[in-house]
Structure formats: structure tokens, C-alpha cells
Specification:
The protein has a two-stranded antiparallel ribbon with strand order 1-2. 2% of the residues are buried. By secondary structure, it is of the alpha+beta class. The chain has one helix and two strands; from the N terminus they run ββα. It has one domain. It starts with a strand and ends in a 34-residue tail after the last helix. Helix content is 26%, strand content 9%.
Amino acid sequence: MILYADDIILISSSVTMLQNLLSECEKELTYLDMLINSKKSCCLRVGPRCDVHCVNIAIHVMVTC
């Protein structure tokens, strides 16, 4: 994990671990009353299997009124 100002970079060796890291970040951000802006977020897969289809990475958007 790399943090700079309000930016977070998550780096993982597997898609499953990336999902786990993202879920933990969501928990902490919820505790801080903050959300992930999915419109400004992206995911990049690198390496020899970068073009192989994998499961979707999901964030759980919580909307409060």
C-alpha cells in the first residue's frame, strides 16, 4: 500500500488479495466517514497473464441521505 495525500495505491500478488486489501480499506474509510470514489478509481493488471480474464474487483458503495 502506498499513500500520498488523499490517494491510495494498493499492490497485490493476486486478485483475491487485492479484493481483501480493498475490503479492509473500505472498512477503515467507513470508520472515518469517507467513501471511495469509484468514478476516479481504476485497476491495472500487469505481468504475463495481464490479458487473461479474471473475476471483477468490487467495492461496496454506501449511500447515506
